[in-house]
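Lecture 7 notes: from sequence to structure.
We start with the chain below.
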Amino acid sequence: MAVFWIASIPLFVLILYFSNEGWIWHRSDRTELFFWYIFFCYVNVSICFLQLPYNIRLLVLVPTLIFTYYSLKRIKKRVRARLNKFEDWRKDKESVVKFSKTEEEEEANQLVEEINKLAVALESSTREFGGYTGTTRAVVVANEQRIISLLRSLNYSNCNYVVQEINLPMIIKDFRDHITGDRPQNKTRLLSVLCDELLPFLSPDTKTVLIDAFQKIGISTIPEHEKHILNIFLSCGGKKLTKLKNLVDAAGSHHDLQHLIFTDIVNPDIRHKILEHITKEAWNNNDNESLQDTKPSELGGNTEVEIKHQTTQLDKEEIDEFSEGEAEEEAVKELLGENTKEKEEEALDKAEKNNEEIQEFQETAPKVLDVKVISDIDDTLYCQLLDRRWPTGTIYPGIRSFYRELDVGRDEKGRVGDLVFLTARPGGYKGMIENYTHKMLTSFGLHTRPTVLCGSTAYFVGNNRIATKKYENFVQYKSLFPEYSFVLVGDSGQGDATLCERLLQDSSLYAAFIHDVVHVKGTPRGKAFQKAGIFFFDTYVGAALKAYSLGLISREGVKRIGRSAREEFLNIKFPPKVQALKEQRSRELNQDLDYANKKLNLKMELIGEPEESPKVTQG
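Predicted C-alpha cells for the same chain:
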C-alpha cells in the first residue's frame, strides 16, 4: 500500500503541474527549477522509507539518484537555453541600424562586447536560489553597476543597436535588488534605464527586443514587469504600434502577441489598458476605410458559389488590354455577361462608362496592411486527417502561392508576414506542440514565418467544440489587430465552416474560403453555408479566382497561383493503387485552370499539355 501511495502521489503532482500553466511554478525559470528540486527530493526520500529490505531499497535508490542528477542537469540546461539573445531573423531588415561614421559603429561594438562580457561574468557567479559562486558580493554589485553605467551612456545614434545586440534576457534575469549591505536596487535601476530613460529613443524593433526579454524570463514573476510592458505599448501609437504588434507576433514560437496579452499578463487591469490603447490607436495608422465593415457585394464581390466577375472588378489597364483585337473583345463581352453579337458595342461602351466605378473600387479595395490571412493547417495546408483524395502528407498544389498572394494583396506592395494559422491542435506544455508546429510549417517552405494560434485538449474532439475554441482564439486575436480585416481559409472537415458562419454573422470576416474535403458543398448544410457567404472550392486555383473577384489578389497573382498549382501537382507522387485519384484531381485542376484562362485570358498550360518551349531563331 505504501508503494502505491509513493508512486501515485508524484504521478498526480506531475499531471497537475503539466496541466496548469497558470501555477506560480511556471512563472519563471527559478520557480520551475525550485519545483523540480522539491519533486525529485520527495521521490528519493520516499524510497528511503519504503518497507523493503535494505539491499532492495539501495538497488532502487542508486539509479534513481543518478536519474535525478542528469534530469536536473538537463532541465537547468533547457531553462538557460530559453534566455537566448533576440533572434536575428526576427529583425526587420529595412530597419537595421546604420551608422553615419565608422567611429560610431566601432564605439557601439565595443559597448556591446563589454556589456556581454560583464553579463557572462554575472551569469557564472550567480547561484540559482541566492548567493554567489567563485566571487564576492562586491564584485557582482560592481559588475551590475558598470552595466547600468554603460547603458546610461548610450545616445540616440547607438542605443537601438546596443540594446538589440546584447543578451538582454540573461542580463535582466541575473540582476538583483540586493537586501544586504547598502542594499543597492540594481535590477530596479536597470529596468528604469531601459524602460523609462531610454524608451523615448527606442524604435519599435528595439522595444520588441525588450518585450521578448520579459517573455523569456517570465513576465508575471515580478508585478513591475507587467507595468513596464504597459509603458512600452503606451509609448507607441498609430503605425508604430501596428509595427510593434506585428514584430512581437512574429516570434516563431508560442511567445506571440496573443500569448503575451492573454496568458503572460495576469493583471486584468493592465491587460485592459493595453487593449484599450490598441483599440484607440488602431485607426490612426490607415487613412482608408477598413474592409471590416464593407460587404463583398459593395466591392463587386459575389457570395454565390459560381464565380462571376463584374466590370468593376477590373483595372482600367486590364480593360484597355482586353479591348484590343477580336479575342480581347470576346473576353470583355464574356466578363460583362453579354452573349449576343447585337450587344457587343453596348458592352464595350459600358466598360468605358464604368471607369469611375473601377477607380472607386481601386480606392476601396483591400490594402495589404489591412488584411490578415487566417488559415487552418490539417486538410487545408496539407492532407492529414479526413481528406482521402490525396496521398497523406501532400501539400496541396498552389496553397503556398495562394497564401503569398493574399498576404501581399491586390497592389502587391504591402508588408509580408500577415499569415496566421488557427488550429485545433493543443499548444502543449510550455508551448511544446505549438513550437513543433512552427518548425513543421517552416519546413513546408512558406513565404514567411507565420503566427500559430493553438487549441486545447479540452476542445479537441467534436466539430462544435473545435469551432468554439477557434472562435475564442479568433476573437482574442482580432481584438489585438482591430485595424485589420480578416480572410479565413479552412476545410470542411473540422468545424471551420461552422466557425466561418458564426464570424460572418458577427461581421468579423471579409471573406471565407473552405476547402471541401468531405463533400459538404452539395448537402443541405453546405447550401446553408454558401447562402451565409462561405465559398467552397476544390482547388486553390478556384479559390484564387474568387479572391480576385473580391479584390484580394491581382490578375497576375491568379496566374502565379495557377502555374504553381500545375508545377506542384506534377511533382506529387501518387501510389500505383490510387492512379484513379490522380486522374480525378487532374480533371478538377484542369477545369479551374481552363476557367481562369477563359475569364481572365491568362493562357496557362493545363496538366497534360506540353509547356511552351522558347523559340529559336536561325541566323
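Points to note: The chain is about 55% helix and 5% strand. The CA atoms of residues 461 and 563 lie 37 Å apart.
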